[in-house]
Automatic annotation (TrEMBL):
Gene Ontology BP terms: pyridoxal 5'-phosphate salvage
Gene3D superfamilies named in the record: 3.40.1190.20
One Gene Ontology cellular component: cytosol
Stored InterPro entries: PM/HMP-P_kinase-1, PyrdxlKinase, Ribokinase-like
Taxonomic source organism: Pseudozyma hubeiensis (strain SY62) (Yeast)
NCBIfam families documented for this protein: pyridox_kin
Record keywords: ATP-binding, Coiled coil, Kinase, Nucleotide-binding, Transferase
Family: Belongs to the pyridoxine kinase family.
Entry's EC annotation: 2.7.1.35
Keyword DNA-binding part of the UniProt annotation: no
One function term, GO molecular function aspect: pyridoxal kinase activity
A matching Pfam family: Phos_pyr_kin
Positions in coiled-coil regions: 311-338
Name this polypeptide is given: pyridoxal kinase
Amino acid sequence: MAANIPDPTRILSIQSHVVSGYVGNRSATFPLQLLGWDVDVTNTVQFSNHTGYGRWGGLRFDSSHLSDIFSSLDKNGLLRYSRMLTGYMPSASVVEVVLGLVKKLRSRQTGGEQDEEGGLVYLLDPVMGDMGRGMYVSPDVLPMYQAMLEYATIITPNQFEAQALTGMQITDLDSLKHVLLKLHKKHKVPHVIITSVELPDADLERIGAQRNMADGRPAMLQVGSSCEIEVRGGERQEPTLEVDELRIWSIQFPEVQGYFSGVGDMFAALTLGRFHPETKIAADDLTPIAKASELAIASLQGILSNTCRVIDELERNLGGEEKEKDEVEVRVDRMRRRELRVVQSKKEIESPTIVYRAKWITA
């Protein structure tokens, strides 16, 4: 069997795929390639289009399908990934197979010497549900994701997913801190980004944030933190960390109104692609993961701006066409207009303008 020595330029992305549109692997691949990564993809589903259209066709792949792919890559010495990204996985058995792959990659020899983490940087996006919608995958996926946490380098849950993973509710700043602490301490995750958080007005004021941006647009709040995790004998050790020792940062940025699919998938991909843990930073400077998040948000804001501009142009030219269509066709047309303009946003992906900066939470 050929050796699977990690290649510092290669990423494996395991998530959903659509023939038309931009979610999952379709949302992640082109941006990562623009950032200089060779991207190999494994599809967990293959659909005609995302499910927001209301009608779609295709297949969800089972664990044996993925296991066969990974086994063949292994035999040919093609498991050379230095980075790995996972998004939507349709069943607990698929998550289990992917977890087995992560363990295999972490046990590799790197350059003739044993690397405690096998030369792998792994971003886990635990796609399970959302606030207001609840869980949209089978509940038996949750314990498998919890088992996966200690093998991830970075996780990017939303608030609902962070609460599900920890079994704790985020109701204010203090409970948010305890959720972050549990993810670092019990689950041994080095880098956590909670991609969207809702806090009471009093807590927003404590951290210098607002409910709305200066121009009146609703604001979104993202928070993150990092923790040094010691590895001995290939196993992560529980850090001696207390809640008041957490170093938490936040970014506020405007929420773009309307339904857009693939935004979370693209954020995860851009964050992984922009993450450079070797970057030297001053003691009071932001962490490499916060800097990666700044760049990812800047690119997404540019992509969404381009997308909204196209939507406005298309909708101005609609006239009375929608009146002649039934409800299903109107929904399909609306979803088609709202697909992310990814290729048209090459400049924003490669050279984003950072407007919304991360800052430390000191409250």
